[in-house]
Please model this.
Amino acid sequence: MCGIVGLFLKDKALEPQLGALLTDMLITMTDRGPDSAGIAIYGNEDRAASKLTVQAEDGDTAFDGLADRLGAAIDGEVSLSRNDTHAVLTVPAGKAEAARAALREIAPDVRIMSFGDTLEIYKEVGLPKDVADRFGLSSMSGTHGIGHTRMATESAVTTLGAHPFNTGSDQCLVHNGSLSNHNSLRRKLQREGIHIETQNDTEVGAAYLTWKMQNGATLGEALEASLDDLDGFFNFVVGTKDGFGVVRDPIACKPAVMAETDQYVAFGSEYRALVNLPGIENARVWEPEPATVYFWTHAEASNPNKKAA
Amino acid sequence: MQTYDLQANSLRELNAALHAQTADTNQTAWEIVNPRGSHAIAVGLDAPIEVEVKGSTGYYCAGMNKQATVHVHGSAGPGVAENMMSGTVVIEGDASQYAGATGHGGLLVIKGNASSRCGISMKGIDIVVHGNVGHMSAFMAQSGNLVVCGDAGDALGDSIYEARLFVRGSVKSLGADCIEKEMRPEHLDILRDLLERAGSDAKPEEFKRYGSARQLYNFKVDNAY
Model:
């Protein structure tokens, strides 16, 4: 069992409240997933900069001087903003990929949680409330975000086993369910040269989407293909720079509720997670159909059936 | 009328108060406000009382119900009226998966749509859905009636034992051992009665009946309808 929450804002006036709304939703889902929690938040774009979220066991040592070393490695100005066990590295626009590669060389003890232009991912073990508090999630603003509360069934309770997972530039995935063919799929993806770090099933699901997209699939196509290639139970919620998507396996035994108003589209594992959203009394509330890819974007140009960059 | 606010008071207190009602209680009308998707609201009731829930509920609302009438003025989460024995449960909105699962008796009315596995393993309950039902509905159904005024999803009545399935709209696909059957006068009578009790103005003649081909399980004549 796990809990998923997601909020995609249509009304810009709500953007300063995104973190607060998502935090409330996340904490409501504590009894679906008390062992770890995470959030992916899409902030406002700075066209001059890209960014990476990184995590380290010992931030005092790992983050010390990291910005300078990374700046030298990628030949550009880098700044670091620490947030508890995580830090956001701001790099010149378009240098996120290069920074990601450089970090693996110069700081192998630093874990890369996300890279892209607007995405930040924060995740840790512990109660969702405590995780939200340590990162100050409720004061964050942004255009859309996804949260996850984990009750581990397939692998260890660790930071890297927590969700969301980064699947590409500004892309993330959270999962409720359990994949049963993750071992064979992990071996296959590793033979294809995909880097997979843990024994976690969702990481394999994320790596699968990354691999599909590296081979030319759009996010929408990758999600469609996951219905054939992934065995097991899954509700996936994905985030992209401009959008937010949902897909459920054909059996659809994991719960999902959606709500839409003029102000937002929201996802919750249960209706409970949605009850404090503004205007929920008059929202259109429904259950997403099995084996159907849903997607919402701010801009038509970024629909999931178009290739990212 | 007893009014109970679930935002101010605990669910356990509410259910204990409802469980304390006996056959001759004077407190026959209950109203629950601010349900906010809570789990297990009004489960295990066993008294002739009427409970109005003013909002949407989470998992297992009105599970194991006996005698009572539970009316949800909103939508219901997974497993509503699971294992109901008798009484009536009415959902004004939609119901999530496995509504009425394993129910032995009573009437479950869903005014909106029901999602997957509605009436799974039903054992005598009557279920009337005004809208559509999702895939695998009436899976392994053993006895009772499932009435669908809209459409049914994939694999309706898969591995069905003995239960009557009535569908007015389309059936996306039938499950293993489930077939269309002739509608006889006695079936129209059952359907007319159920539609009337469920507040539906659908005509019994508009429905088709589905049931077991009796090839998949070891048939005993005592089970026959």
Notes: The first strand of chain B starts at residue 2 and ends at 5. The mean pLDDT of chain B is 96. The domain at 2-214 of chain B is CATH 2.160.20.60 (Pectate Lyase C-like).
